[in-house]
Amino acid sequence: MIKSAMAAAVLPILFIYIMIAKPDYTFMNATAHVVVPVAQWVGNIVTWPVRAVKDAANNVAEFATLRSENEELKARLNELMANQNKCKLALAENDRLNKLLDTVTAQPYDTVVADIIHDASAIGHNTYFINRGTNDGVDKGMVVTSPDMTLAGIIIDSADNMSRVRAITDADTNIAVRVAGSGVYGFLDGNGSANPTIGFFSNPEFQPSPGIILVTSNISGVLPAGLYVGEITEKNDVNVLSPKKLSQVFVLKFNSNHSGYIR
Question: How far apart are alpha carbons 146 and 170 in whole angstroms?
Fold first, then answer.
């Protein structure tokens, strides 16, 4: 605005001078080279306070924005650190419980993933079919588990592209088990119902109670040790995994070549 006012004040004088003196354009060009820089310098000096205030206002606004973003980032960082601590605590608790229960949580064997394609349950018996067979490396005697490593049965017949699995609830099933975290062994007998029964033999004084965890025993090398089997509910009944709750299983390439405890 100041520059415009100065230019407006100077222009009439220049026009009057041109009309009266009629100078040549060489003089005018020389004058322009001096007048214009001087006017610009004067305008910069005069407008410096305005520009300084404007820059200061911009800096204050930018600082306020940065401060707000900084506070938001601090809050998000604190939230992430809290979640990280919760995850660490959960992992530590999980490790502690796994050691206490003495169960297998990782997959230590070569596996074949299979889908359950047919349930052949009958009175007193519980078998089902999967869509993997000898062409996939699946053979009779291999162990079947759920994706979370819970015992789900054993392969009793295998064809090229399918196999039949005997569930642990089948009446012909007899599994060597162990009380997790102890040296007490016993047998889990299928009875055709959803809850097989347990009988202990290694410690006659042992009294089963609800909540006790059972895992597989590797007696005679028939089954891999440490697979979760089930939990004692009342008396000698055990709550185990029902094949009806599964759509997909793992076949562990573990085969003892014995008739053993799951026949």
Answer: 17
Task: Give the number of residues written for the chain.
Answer: 263
φ, ψ of residue 48 in degrees (nearest 5): -55, -45
Q: What share of the chain is helix, strand, coil (3-state, %, to 5)?
A: 40, 25, 35
CA dihedral 79, 82, 86, 87 (to 10 degrees): 70
CB 138 within 8 A of CB 112: yes
Sign of CA dihedral 219, 221, 227, 233: negative
The whole-number pLDDT of residue 92 equals 61
Query: Which residues 6+ apart lie within 8 Å of 224 measured at CB?
Result: 104, 108, 109, 143, 216, 218, 252, 254
Which 8-state DSSP code applies to residue 157? E
Q: Sign (positive/negative) of CA torsion 4, 9, 15, 18?
A: negative
Segments in the chain below pLDDT 70: 1-53, 89-109, 122-124, 220-221, 255-263
**Cα–Cα distance between 238 and 168 in angstroms, integer?**
11
Task: Return the residue matching tokens 């306020």.
Answer: 64
Structure tokens, 92: 């530590």
Cα–Cα distance list, 122 to 22, 171, 184, 244, 252 (Å): 122, 10, 33, 13, 26
